[in-house]
Amino acid sequence: MRYEELAGHPGVFHAPVAGNAAAARAMAEVLDAQETRRAEGFRRARDAERHRVAHVLLRLVLGAHLGEAPERLVFRRRACPGCGGPHGKPYLDGHPVHFSLSHTADHVLLALACAPVGVDVEAVPGAATAREVLPALHLREREELTGLADAELAARLARCWARKEAALKATGLALTEGAEEPYVGSAGRPAQVPGLVLTDLPAPGGHRAALAVAEPVGRRGP
Fold it and tell me: What are phi and psi of 206, to 5 degrees?
């Protein structure tokens, strides 16, 4: 399995899907029954490959980090903050490490941290898709993006969406309450989000990525 830790961002790992599909199939025995059923349930082979690459990566990196065999790791899920069902943020049974996983059609990102963490990678959409998504954002973000030329709109919207997804994953909310809050901005630097350190990540061409890590309680502002 071929993956790399992002330079300057310890604990953040990238793996290409296509380049790892065969390796992930060969290592599929490290996955648990639920992960295996999910991979086998996809109608499209590409979706199954992406799922296997993401979850084999997760087990390999966590196993190496914790000194555990990848297949022995047991994952649980917290209650969903939206409906209370058992499909909320995943966590590792018996270990305090926090992690977040994100993928597009072609790339997987994984982040590990000692505090709640969220990572997200987004493909830059077409201009039409960007304009469809625009109304879901915070008012200030809509104001920043409205009127931009197609190419700039799409690139900045992908940047904004990656930041927002990362922030919401770190808080455990995901998109259960919509994409309006928090305000993360679409300009060159992320806006400050209370309780989080939000950072843009280097991303493959045609993509944008971001990382959010919860600040220690003692360092948070009022």
Answer: 80, 15
| Domains defined for the chain, CATH in brackets | 1-114 (3.90.470.20), 117-217 (3.90.470.20)
* Token digits of residue 198: 């939000």
Contact (Cβ atoms closer than 8 angstroms) between residue 57 and residue 1: yes
Residues 185-197 have a mean pLDDT of 95
Query: CA torsion, points 208, 82, 98, 192, in degrees to nearest 10?
Result: 50
101 in the Ramachandran plot: left (φ > 0), alpha (ψ -120 to 50) or beta? beta
List, as one string, the DSSP characters of 65-124: HHT--GGG--EEEPPPTTT--S-S-EEETT---EEEEEE-SSEEEEEEESS-EEEEEEEP
Q: What is the pLDDT of residues 140-153, one digit of tens each?
A: 999 999 999 999 99
pTM: 0.92
